[in-house]
Amino acid sequence: MQNTQEMVTYFGQIAAARRAHGAEDLITALVESEVDGESLEEWEILGFCILLLIAGNETTTNLMGNMLNVLVEHPNLWQSLREDRGLVETVIEETLRYESPVQQLFRVATRDVEVSGVKIAEGDMVTVFFGAANRDPQEFANPDEFRLDRDLRSHVSFGMGIHYCLGAPLARAEAKISLNAFLDRFPVLTRGQAPAVRQTASPVVFGFQQLPLVLENGRL
User: Fold this and answer.
1) In this predicted structure, what is the pLDDT of residue 215?
2) Mean pLDDT score of the chain, rounded to an integer?
3) What secondary structure letter does DSSP report for 205?
4) Taking the model in full, what pTM does it have?
5) β strands within the chain, DSSP E
6) Backbone phi, then psi, for 69, in 5-degree steps?
7) What does the alpha-carbon distance between residue 86 and residue 93 come to, in Å, rounded to a whole number?
8) β-sheet bridge partners, residue 126
9) Buried/exposed 107-139: b ≥16 CB within 10 Å, e otherwise
10) Which domains, ranges and CATH numbers included, belong to the chain?
11) Which terminus of the chain, N or C, has fewer Cβ atoms within 10 Å?
12) pLDDT tens across 163-176, in order?
């Protein structure tokens, strides 16, 4: 909560500065924008900034970390990727399924409903576990295995419907560009001496607090 409050204060100061002296950036666009003739309220601007910072940064960072963690366990796959870049997008999609960067999000039921025999009342808080859905054995055979021969169109790492992640194309592009850059430059990927440590500060995201890796360029 302290971190969140500091972030609110920081963005509040930036928004005030942009109102006084605009710049060619997103926050200026937010403070100057109007919807049906009305400006956005302060909480809307600050909420947008915080959401964009977290959703556009932490999730993709965890995707990259989770992907490199999988690949360091499969050295033959690293070499296969270097030789056949057509596998890169499949590796990204299987990482999204296998170690979903967003494990859960919260929703509020808009009506009474029954799911698998469980009654959910209008107004109830519901936790949607995307990570569990992506390991559903009814949808993915041997779900605890990392495989490239799956039909990955049904993974739900980016959500679905009206809540589907707006940043999904950007996240995929960032992961593809980054992984290809690593593959271009480093023939060998191995673990560092220090242990990998998963983050435990948030139950929502799945990633690393630290992930020591050794990237070798093959030069003496």
Assistant:
1) 94
2) 93
3) B
4) 0.84
5) 34-35, 38-39, 104-108, 113-115, 118-120, 125-129, 188-191, 197-198, 208-210, 213-216
6) -65, -40
7) 13
8) 107
9) eeeeeeeeeeeeeeeeeeeeebebbebbbeeee
10) 1-55 (no CATH), 69-216 (1.10.630.10)
11) C
12) 899 889 999 999 99
pLDDT in tens, 13-66: 999 999 999 899 999 999 999 888 899 999 999 999 988 888 888 899 999 999
**Rounded Cα distance, 155 and 136, in Å:** 10
**Separation between Cα atoms, residue 89 and residue 172, nearest integer Å:** 8
Helix (H) or strand (E) holding 133: helix 130-133
Average pLDDT over residues 181-192: 96
- CA dist 18 and 133 (Å) reads 42
Q: What is the pLDDT of residue 217?
A: 86
Tokens 């009506």: give the residue: 111
- Phi/psi at 90 (nearest 5 deg)? -65, -40
Q: Which amino acid is at 107?
A: R
Tokens at 20, concatenated = 């006084």
Residue with tokens 């956005």: 40
**Tokens found for residue 34:** 């109007």
Average pLDDT of span 170-193: 96
Confirm if 28 and 18 have CB atoms less than 8 A apart: yes
Q: Which amino acid is at 151?
A: D
